[in-house]
Amino acid sequence: MTLSIIAVSIVATAAIGIGSWGVRLARTTSDLFVASRAVTPWWNAAAISGEYLSAASFLGVAGLLMKLGAAALWLPIGFTGGYLALLLFVAAPLRRMGAYTIADFAEARLGSPGMRLVAAATTLLIAGFYLVPQLKGAGIAVGEITGGPYAVGVVAVAVIVALSVGLGGMRGITYVQAFQYWVKVFAIALPACILLIHLGGLPAKSALFGRDLPTAPAGGLVVELEREHEVRFPRAAAYTVDGVPARAERGETRSIGPGTLELEEGTTVPVATGIDAEPGDDWSRPVAEDGPASPLLVYSLLVATFLGTMGLPHILVRFYTNPDGPAARRTTVRVLGLLGVFYLFPVVYGMLGRVMTPELYVTGETDTVVLRLPVAAWPGLGGEILAAVTAAGAFAAFMSTASGLLVSVAGTLSFDVWGRLSGRPRPRRADRRRWFRIAAVAGMIVPAAIALVSRDLDISLLVGWAFALAASTFCPLLLLGIWWTGLTTRGAVAGMAGGATSATGGILLGLAIGADDTDVAGALLTQPALVSVPLAFATMVAVSRLDLRGTQPTEGQLLSLHAPEGLGLRARQAAASAEPVELPRSGP
Predict the structure, then answer these.
(1) Of 365, 359, 297, 308, whose CA–CA distance to 525 is shortest?
(2) CA proximity to 137, closest of 56, 67, 225
């Protein structure tokens, strides 16, 4: 524990130090919003990868693999593949447009100030709720590392991130996130490789790929239950709770705890609510007839992650920091490589965790497998050192993603919302910087408050909702706005509203009725992107076609999106200037 605290403190101190150094560079509005559009492809790629690899990637992918099986591997495939769509359709045109925020792009493309507020509200919704699982992950990790209260981790990360963003803006955070990417790769790769060498490969292969269920290891299994847990016994088993013997029949569900649960060696481990007990050959199948690996859920998940990446505001704003369109494309190619390297390693933790930490099936806390596995697989000093390394990487994951999200939230609040609502769309430079810093602090308050009261909410649920929402709103707006001249303001608003409503409504309805993902209706409610994304595209196109008063994009707008930059054509002065210009106020 002491080593983990030291490792986390070193990473936090280094991040604060780099951020403080970046304060010297944050002299202008452009430094705060887009790092003066001077970030090179390699720096930007590392920074994008750093903020993209969140709690869901560092802890969640391994935890979901352990919990659900090989079907969870579709998540990193979608996460990474989404950058291919960005590379092909969005990166260069978005950078050529020249903007500070997604709402800035929306107003410039559609010529409607009202569209700015719609896009700003969507940005705040996606980024704000995506912050919640980062802060929740921080609370869990800090509690796991220090034994302290959950709230301490939430508040600590919230304060550090708010100060770093408020002081250094995009320029300072860029270098912090690039540093944190390499910390995360080192922290997840080194322990994985060393543990495989130490264990001599994958142990107990029958539990991974055979017909066995996870069982208590040699010497038995002892699980400390801090509260009552409802568990199901996949096979008949004898057990004791605080020394009191009991027996459960096959398929029986029992409420156990708080107390100390003990299972004898070889006893099949009971599983918490929400986890299916699967033998190794079923667990290792990436696609199955039903359940989380059903084709319908897999396709819907891929749609959400592949297209949702394109709509994440904290990722999109990064492409404004490149000097030009070609640099944005080069950045995207590098990101694909950096993410591919990282996602090789969570698989190791998920597979080893199934065999080495079966107690996590009892508590349902599979998200902590990355933090607990080193000590479980290698008791003693070696495991403690590796656990400290993974703890440092987890802390870096929370901080880097939270930083990128907060930059997006602060930029939207200060530039898109406050600038319009105050009636001063072109304030003085000093006012812009002050508004940004106030917004960085204010924008963290609501997500932190939600994280404090939502400890039991599944991280993967919030992340999946954010991706589904992004895929159903900003993705169609960007693709149609860039590549279809017929898009109108009414069409964009209607499509975004329909996509957001169907995605959010589906998930909330599924939670309310306890949807079963083994049938078609339950699967679509659990992951609604397969319905909400086509609905958003179809609504945008249909309403735009019927909107007789809708305006067509000007020649200047099209040039700013698609003309080769070497020709020197600029539709908007903001693309070449450090300060934004007043956008057109014509609307529907």
Answers:
(1) 297
(2) 56
Mean pLDDT on 563-573 = 53
Calculate the CA 270 to chain-centre distance.
30
User: 2-200+284-566: what fold?
Assistant: Sodium/glucose cotransporter (1.20.1730)
Share of the chain above pLDDT 70, in %: 86
Biggest CA-to-CA distance, the chain:
81
Mean pLDDT confidence for 272-285? 90
Number of Cβ within 10 Å of residue 108's Cβ equals 28
**What was the pLDDT predicted at 587?**
32
Q: Which residues, 6+ apart, have CB-to-CB distance to 144 below 8 Å?
A: 368, 371, 372, 391
Alpha carbon distance 69, 67 (integer Å): 6
Return the number of other C-beta atoms located less than 10 Å from residue 216's C-beta.
21
For residue 463, pLDDT beyond 50 = yes
The pLDDT value given to residue 420: 65
* Distance in angstroms (rounded) separating the CA atoms of residues 505 and 502: 5
Distance (Å, rounded) from C-alpha 510 to C-alpha 307? 22
pTM, 2 dp: 0.84
Task: Decide if 354 contacts 206 (C-beta within 8 A).
Answer: no
Residue type present at position 194: I
pLDDT of residue 438: 87
Count Cβ atoms within 10 A of the Cβ of residue 585 and give its class: 0-12 exposed, 13-18 middle, 19 or more buried.
Answer: exposed
Backbone angles phi, psi at 176, to 5 degrees: -65, -45
- pLDDT per residue as tens digits for the range 84-113: 888 888 877 877 776 667 888 888 888 888
Q: Is 260 helix (H, G, I), strand (E, B) or coil?
A: strand
Q: What pLDDT score was predicted for residue 172? A: 67
3-state secondary structure 370-428: HHHHHHHHCCCHHHHHHHHHHHHHHHHHHHHHHHHHHHHHHHHHHHHHHHHHCCCCCCC
| Domain locations in the chain as residue ranges | 2-200+284-566
Residue 299 vs residues 460, 463, 499, 521, 531: alpha-carbon distances, Å: 17, 17, 17, 14, 11
